[in-house]
Amino acid sequence: MRAIAPTPSTAAGPAVATTRPLLDDGARTSLHVAAFPLAGLTLGVRRLEQPETLVRWCRAERVEHAIVGGFFVRPHNAPLGELRIDGRAVKHVPFTAPWGAVRACVHRGAGGVRIAARHDLPAVPDGDLLQAGPLLVRDGRSAITGTDDEGFTAGAAQFDSDITEGRHPRSALALTPTSLLAVTCDGRHEDEAGLTLGELADLLVGLGATSAMNLDGGGSTALVCGGRLVNHPREQHGIELLDGRPISTALVLAYAG
Fold it and tell me: What pLDDT, in 10s, does the model give residues 130-154?
């Protein structure tokens, strides 16, 4: 199982590559990877004021590059998991205890961007923080061990289903020594198998990730580059969502090439 890593662009935007890695059982799925050099990158967490699809929100806000953020709770799309913007806590629905203390986060602070378990980050961090999970890659190796370390099976009642089970469309954020990767995969189609969390983690390791985390997925999977929706979101039964599903939070990637 192998994916081709894009070479980070030095022009007006990120390099974007779409590949179709061969999975161990012979299935394939489309993997979309946008690579942003860490030099010149600004990562920001955004809370959408009203539920909106990522691509429509990007067009309205004139945002060029973004990926779906964390989970949310219907019907009002309240963010699920810790959320902080500019050092201030944003109203959200906490993860069921004790999982909020351990689930993975992306943190953008004065020291740069980190992807880590919540307990490995400052208790009151500066900058922006978004919690989702699980952690996919730690220290350059897959963090998917087959155990329920972050409680996504034990705490599945807060979700539509156990997100650790089976292949689905997925979204992820990964750090390599030189770049940040915004990654999505398609799924829920006869020619688009989707990925398990373990398969996604292995592909990210193959792309050079030193750390990575899972973001919201399924029908919410969305990656926008250059104002265009790169992936092909689908509902559970394969119905294509031309603009994706309304979401609650986004990670905005401002690139200065």
Answer: 999 999 999 999 999 999 999 999 9
Q: Is residue 164 part of a domain?
A: yes
In a domain, 125, yes or no: no
When computed from its CA atoms, the radius of gyration of the chain, rounded to whole angstroms, is 16
Structural domain boundaries, residue 33: 24-73+133-248
Contact between residue 41 and residue 253 where contact means Cβ atoms under 8 Å apart: yes
Q: Residue 18 is inside which H or E element, if any? A: strand 15-19
DSSP sequence for 54-89: HHHHHHHHT---EEE-SEEETTTTEEES-EEETTEE
3-state secondary structure of 224: strand
Put simply, whether the predicted model's pTM sits higher than 0.90 gets the answer yes
Closest CA to 115 of 225, 9, 38, 195: 38
* CA distances in angstroms from 252 to 37, 82, 83, 213, listed in the order given: 14, 17, 14, 16
State the total domains in the chain: 1
